[in-house]
Amino acid sequence: MIKSAVTIALVPQIKTGPWIFWEDLEEGMKKAQNLGFDGIELFTPSPELMEIEYLHELLEKYSLELAAVGTGAGKVLHGLTLTDPDPSIRQKAKAFIEGMIRFGAAFGAPAIIGSMQGHALPGNSRSQSLNWLKEALKELGALAASLNTFLIYEPLNRYETNLINRLTDGAALLKEGDAKGVKLLADLFHMNIEESDLAESIKENASKIGHIHFADSNRSPIGSGHTDMSPIAKVLKESGYSGFISAEAFPVPNPEEAAKMTIESFTRFFKD
Hints:
Elements: E1 3-9, E2 21-22, H1 25-35, E3 39-43, H2 52-61, E4 65-70, H3 73-78, H4 87-105, E5 111-113, H5 126-146, E6 151-153, H6 167-176, E7 182-187, H7 188-194, H8 198-204, E8 209-213, H9 229-239, E9 244-247, H10 255-270
Parallel strand pairs: 1-2, 1-3, 1-9, 3-4, 4-5, 5-6, 6-7, 7-8, 8-9
Helix pairs in contact: 4-5, 8-9
């Protein structure tokens, strides 16, 4: 069964980002339940700042699942990436992600590696950066698998990384690095920039996809840009995708309306 999720960010430093609800975790969960979402995707400053027992209580109270946890705070707050030329920083980045993997695993939820993959920096070859990334994904994926969950790797658009931008290249990276326990995230916003045919790319890589970010071509809620969702929804249903489709989109015109637009679009394309 394909399930819906909405993003809740608890990191003030990323408040201008594509997250639907902000700051108040319980209020965001209450709104998510009232609108009919199945789960939440959570962005927290660190695993230590969120009590596992408290989150369990809230998820049960509002009949929600934890769809995934983001790791972007590792880069935003601490400047950590898996491809930094400094080995001590790469090690700190892995340690931060390991903490998020363990946190998510307490709920059966995967962690997402997006911005923490980093860049091939000047003076550092792209091939070396990719090797560091492959090594980290293999190690972190093994940890996730040992905790009965999986890790999610997200190809980003060319303006956010110069490493991996397309799903097919992401799949090749995981294969080359023998990264078991790792699945791809298909972010429709990034794909609108990088893919010539979103539905075809999803079809070609369907067996590798473990999470979907549901945002239109302008990174606002689906229905506010020019993304053609019909063929994408058709491919996902035909492929047997059974993960979460999560609204990582700008909260425009406001969080409540953005969430409402999202669940209406999700219902239209995946429930009706």
